[in-house]
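Human:
If only I could read backbone structure tokens as easily as an amino acid sequence. I am handing you a single protein, as its sequence and its fold in token form. I hope you can help me see how the letters and the tokens relate. Thank you; the sequence and its tokens follow:
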Amino acid sequence: MANDNSKNSILQKALTLFCAHGYDGTGIQDITAAAGVTKPTLYYFFGNKDGLFEAVWETYFPILENPLIPCCRYENHIADYESDVYGQLRRIVAQFFDFIKNQQEFYRLMMEAVYAPPESKALSLSTGYFNRLYGLLEQFFTGASEAHGNMKGKEHEFAISFLAQINAYAGIWLAQPEGSPQRPILDDSCAHTLVKQFMHGIFS
């Protein structure tokens, strides 16, 4: 009998399998076998594989997005460097780092999707979520550009390059085993370094 436990099990196993094998490499049979449910149960909750993939995003993406929403409302503290662009970008990075460490499988899935070929189903199903993420970051840089005129007209490019820099750190962290000297420590010091590197490009 279909129930919420079955639904949650399907979502969790689907995330693990999509993360490990990609959208195309994961079949309905793989998911139902891992979750211990029948195909009709999966279809009852999600309709098809596309619906399940989107449900994974709808479940996990807000865990990143919701805390970012207030962080991406720029506040003008131009007289106080620590509280202005630098400090607010550090807060955004801290939210990403927290999410990456606590939702490793989903962030792997995000990175796989964003770098997928243009014709990929995974990319087409996830594009709207990435647009929301870039939109939040662009909102921040648009607000900051009102106080810092040298940022005007570059808000979209800043959003792209800032997320790319975060993903560079995330990619190394996810690829290296725990204890590896090559694995960055996603902490306040790392956030400071990342933001300093990024701001050098803005204000140089």
Q: What stands out?
A: The radius of gyration is 19 Å. The chain has nine helices and no strands. The CA atoms of residues 11 and 56 lie 6 Å apart.
